[in-house]
Amino acid sequence: MKIYDASNQILGRMSTIIAKELLKGEKVVVVNCEKSVISGSPKYKSAFYLNRVHRGDVKHGPFFPKTPDDIFRRTVRGMVPWHQVKGRNAFKNLRVFIGLPEQFKNKTLEKVEKADADKLKSRYITLGNLSISIGAKKRW
């Protein structure tokens, strides 16, 4: 089981590595997902995700999540073959948490070097701020 710390990590780059680990059969846990980063203009990214939330019908969907852990899971889901059995089985091995739960406090947390947001030269928005701007209630 691998435990990743998503604080100050780029969401898309981290998601690709997690998706590859899941397809290999690993169990993956992600903590501090609300501190992960999406690169780009915060105003544009908020409008983009708000459009995804409001798309479709209230009763029939498509439904798009608003909370940071669900957005993170949805991003990883887009990178596994969801319509195949191996993709759905791999996706069941992913656990995403807001904050750091008690059970993982004494464990070693891994970081993805390629996904480090310190190298970003552009503007960005954290996943927690994005979810608040698209209408999630702050529970973290």
Write up this protein.
The protein is α/β, with parallel strands linked by helices and about 140 residues long. It has one domain: Ribosomal protein L13 (Ribosomal Protein L13p, Chain: A, Alpha-Beta Complex), CATH 3.90.1180.10. The chain is built from 5 helices and 5 strands. It has helices spanning about 10-25, 40-55, 70-75, 85-90, 125-135; strands at about 1-5, 30, 35-40, 95, 125. It has a 3-stranded parallel sheet with strand order 1-2-4, with helices on one face. α1 (about 10-25) packs across α3. The chain is globular, with a radius of gyration of 15 Å. The mean pLDDT is about 95.
Instruction: Name the average pLDDT.
Output: 95
CATH topology term = Ribosomal Protein L13p, Chain: A
- How far apart the termini lie comes to 25 Å
Number of strands: 5
Count of alpha and pi helical runs: 5
| Count of all domains | 1
Helix-and-strand structural type: alpha/beta
Kindly provide the radius of gyration, computed on alpha-carbon positions and rounded to a whole number of angstroms.
15 Å
Strand content: 5-15%
Spatial order of the strands forming the largest sheet: 1-2-4
Which geometry do the CA atoms define?
A: globular
Q: What's the CATH C level?
A: Alpha Beta
The level of helicity is 25-40%
What is the CATH homologous superfamily assignment? Ribosomal protein L13
What is the assembly state of the chains in this entry?
A: single chain
CATH architectural designation: Alpha-Beta Complex
Low-confidence stretches: none
Tell me about the largest β-sheet. 3 strands, parallel
Give the SSE string.
EHEEHHHEEH
